[in-house]
Amino acid sequence: MTYIKQAFTDSLTLDSVKAHLNITFADDDDLILGYLKSSLLYVERSTNRVLRPLMYEAEDDELEEFEYDAVSWFCLELPTRPLSVLLDTTEYTSLNDFYIYDSADSLLYIPYDETVTSITANCGSVIDDYSEVELINQARLLLVGNWYAFREADMIGSIKEIPTGVSRIIDILSGPNV
User: Fold this and answer.
1) Buried-most residue among 5, 87, 125, 157 (CB within 10 A)?
2) φ and ψ at residue 28, rounded to 5 degrees
3) Rounded CA separation 100/106 (Å)
């Protein structure tokens, strides 16, 4: 059984965040990247929504043959039923009845083919509305800016809470009309 790695390309880059923070030096790049990753998780958990595209990938060296009832399969562990599966460059959907997803065990079964070198499973994305992506990115920029500015608990003055703008955006994204 193979666990498929999640592939994710963030729409916010280190350069765009550094521009937002008005930072031109590289000394804090790792710190800022950590805040950037944390900001996505913060917004996801605050809105109780998955904001990342749920794409999972397995490469040639990770694919194992699995035999069941005299039939050979690729057996892959996924958190949810895929909308489509890409074998190298050929895409299949569940409508094709090409693959089987066992929701009880979170396993995806694909007929084995020795010529296949990669499998990508598209499990969907909750966010496909451009305006929502922009709201999410604005909240994340505000969070990263806040965390970067107030990263030490011993700063003079009071510890800052989450910026009001972030709370308002999360309220919008969590609302019933989303």
Assistant:
1) 87
2) -105, 15
3) 11
pLDDT tens digits for 45-95? 787 666 665 667 777 777 777 887 777 888 877 767 777 787 887 777 765
Beta-carbon count within 10 A of 100 CB: 13
Decide if 57 contacts 123 (C-beta within 8 A). no
Give Cβ neighbours of residue 148 (< 8 Å, ≥ 6 apart): 21, 28, 31, 32, 35
Domains, the chain, ordered by start:
13-51+127-174 (1.10.3230), 55-122 (no CATH)
Supply the pTM of this predicted model.
0.55
